[in-house]
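Sorry, can you check?
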Amino acid sequence: MITGDGQCLAAFVFGTTVGVLVQRSRWCNTAALRDAMLFKSYRNTKALLVAMMILTVGFTAMISFGNGNPMRFDVGINQFIGLFLFGIGMVFAGACTVSSWVKTGEGNIGALWALLFLIVGLFLSSLIWSFTFWPLAGQTMTGGPNAAGLQFGWADALTLQRDTGVPAIVFGIIQAAAFYALYRRILKRERATLQGEGDTAFAAGPKPATPAVPALAIVATEEAVGVLSPLPPLGE
């Protein structure tokens, strides 16, 4: 059994490693979606899909073997509204929470303000969570469908495993396969784009090269022009 000091040390080593990797790779969840939709750039999108495949299979495998500690949450209309507002905030900030930490460490003042007010917003949310965050929030989040509270019930692999008797890893593999199919589709689109650009460049053909003129020829030409030019009139 790991001690408290051991847990702090492991968290420090893991957090430092992840921080270095995020900073060097320029990882950003916002860029994974924003760049794909606005700029047709899928670098971060592919990285996000690979991470989601690994996490999905890993967590569901731990749940299936009984070693996982899944986070259970009740999905409702409030989650959709909150995620939508959070997505808008990330686009305005130009970064997700992870990359905001990285940019703050790099000295970005805008990211520092975004991170500061994110912390303020989370603090205020914690104060009003059980009172006005959502109508009768504490009473309606029961884990099952509840039309009065606009809740749809628990959404996690452990619930699916318990209700269906199918190991959670099966659902994890299905979801990872869907992510992989999307990943392959992105690769196919990128190859088609590169091929189209190559065909366009080939059809245009190489630009005619401008013949190089030796320096001595330029000097000789200038001297000949000077010799053949008429002399200036007298008195000037």
DSSP finds ten helices and two strands in the chain. The first strand starts at residue 74 and ends at 76.
